[in-house]
Amino acid sequence: MALPLQITALGSAPAALALPDLPWDVPLSQWPADVLAALPRGISRHVVRFVRLQDTVAAVKENTEELVRREYGLLRVLRRLEVPCVVPIAVVTGRSKADGEPLDPALVTQHLQFSLPYRALFSQSLRPDTATRLVDALAVLLVRLHLAGFYWGDVSLSNTLFRRDAGEFAAYLVDAETGELHNELSDGQRSNDVEVARINIAGELMDLEAAEYLDEGVDPVEVANSIVERYYSLWDELTGTESFEQGERWRVQARIERLNELGFDVGELSISTDVGGSVVQIQPKVVDAGHHSRRLLRLTGIDAENNQARRLLNDLDGYIAATDRQNDQEEIVAHEWLARVFEPVVKAVPRELRRKLEPAEIFHEVLEHRWYRSQERQRDIPLLEAARWYVEDVLAQRPDEQALILQAGLMNTGQLAAVGMDGDEAPLLSGVDDPDDPESDRIDGWLSSHG
Ligand SMILES: Nc1ncnc2c1ncn2[C@@H]1O[C@H](COP(=O)(O)OP(=O)(O)OP(=O)(O)O)[C@@H](O)[C@H]1O
Ligand SMILES: [Mg+2]
């Protein structure tokens, strides 16, 4: 007799309430187009599909019960450790067809908005340094996982998702199936992961090369080897001990600033002095990243990557200074900046173009475009004018990132057939009202001159 369908979900995931409505008695590969969402997806051994779940999109992956439960558990812990990874929603077991034939259990995760599988990024034939930037982002992710005691076991570009981060990339772990959590990793475990990464990246890039998706300037082996150097230099910068003479205390601050620049926070600094008191040693204990992201989220509710957040915060700080609001409560000024600066720029982008990039990235690119245009014309360009130019000159020419992989024909036909296209827009910013129109002169002045 077939077991009853069982859904184990996190209490805090409201989307889980809609889970029983999905056609669990049908193999995932045959799910009807009306429950699916057409979004770019990487290659995988298991069947993975994106589905609509209330207002959100979720990824469903079929696997054995043991592996589904294991991955679900690991992702939950990784979330608690604040490591960038996909968010687990539920485990579905006890599936069977109408005739009683058992079906594989499934893992449901939240779809990571605006994430791109690496094949989609390469298919755009981006600048040759794209490969290097992806590897850099993966090196940062690997260091973060290792600091948290997570041994990945299957580090690769296809097990990672990338989101744009102010011209760079931020990497997220998507496939935790092979991972193990330890209190602390040994040097051997870490170097194993780095070696697996090197070999997998070389193989993945060679595949792209063979399919002629790789820019000619990219040498797969060279790019793959660069992860080793990037990983170890980052690890040393984060965990290394530094010695300096008494009286050079500024170097402590400099070290902290370097770490913040890299997107890491210093949780605790162990400082020791030698017997004579002349040499000081410091070793930072690096905690989770996201220094800037958290401040931006707290102040404005915008959930952005760290570099994007830094860019937006610089702009906000400029606004605070220009409007002479240093003594006002930061949250209040931030709210005003959101309504008067950030949102008008995002709204200057026609709705149909907004799904091309997420709002924080659009804002960042408008600032860049404004700087570039101002240089070119040797005059200050108002922000909204820059936004309009940006829409015409840059954004309108770009491929829509959500539909990228379909355009590029990188999915195999089976996958293509199973994925329905839809015309829904990606949510932009929810709960945003029209900003008050009459802006004060001071703000107008700032809008037309800052940058
Ligand atoms: N939550 C998610 N958000 C966005 N994309 C996702 C998500 N979950 C899975 N994907 C996409 O599906 C692909 C396959 O997922 P995953 O790597 O977990 O499958 P797999 O079959 O275990 O892979 P492997 O072949 O490495 O064993 C990913 O590369 C990614 O593109
Ligand atoms: Mg995978």
What does this 3D model show about the protein?
The protein is an alpha+beta fold and 451 residues long. It folds into 4 domains: 6-110, Phosphorylase Kinase, domain 1, CATH 3.30.200; 118-239, Orthogonal Bundle (Transferase(Phosphotransferase), domain 1), CATH 1.10.510; 242-289, no CATH class; 292-420 and 430-449, no CATH class. 42% of the residues lie in helices and 15% in strands. It has 14 helices and 12 strands. Strands 1-4-5-3-2 form a 5-stranded antiparallel sheet. Strand 11 (264-273) and strand 12 (279-289) form a beta hairpin. Helix 3 (130-147) runs parallel beside helix 5. Mean pLDDT is 80; it is low at 403-451. The chain binds adenosine-5'-triphosphate and magnesium ion.
List the helices and strands and how they pair.
Blueprint: E1 6-9, E2 48-53, E3 56-62, H1 65-80, E4 88-93, E5 106-110, H2 118-123, H3 130-147, E6 150-151, E7 160-165, E8 168-173, E9 180-181, H4 187-210, H5 220-239, E10 242-245, H6 250-261, E11 264-273, E12 279-289, H7 291-300, H8 306-322, H9 330-347, H10 359-377, H11 383-393, H12 404-407, H13 413-418, H14 441-449
Antiparallel strand pairs: 1-4, 2-3, 3-5, 4-5, 6-9, 7-8, 10-12, 11-12
Helix pairs in contact: 3-5, 4-5, 7-8, 8-10, 10-11
This protein binds adenosine-5'-triphosphate and magnesium ion (MG).
Adenosine-5'-triphosphate is lined by residues 41-42, 44-46, 48, 59, 61, 86, 109-112, 115, 117, 158-159, 161, 174-175, 177.
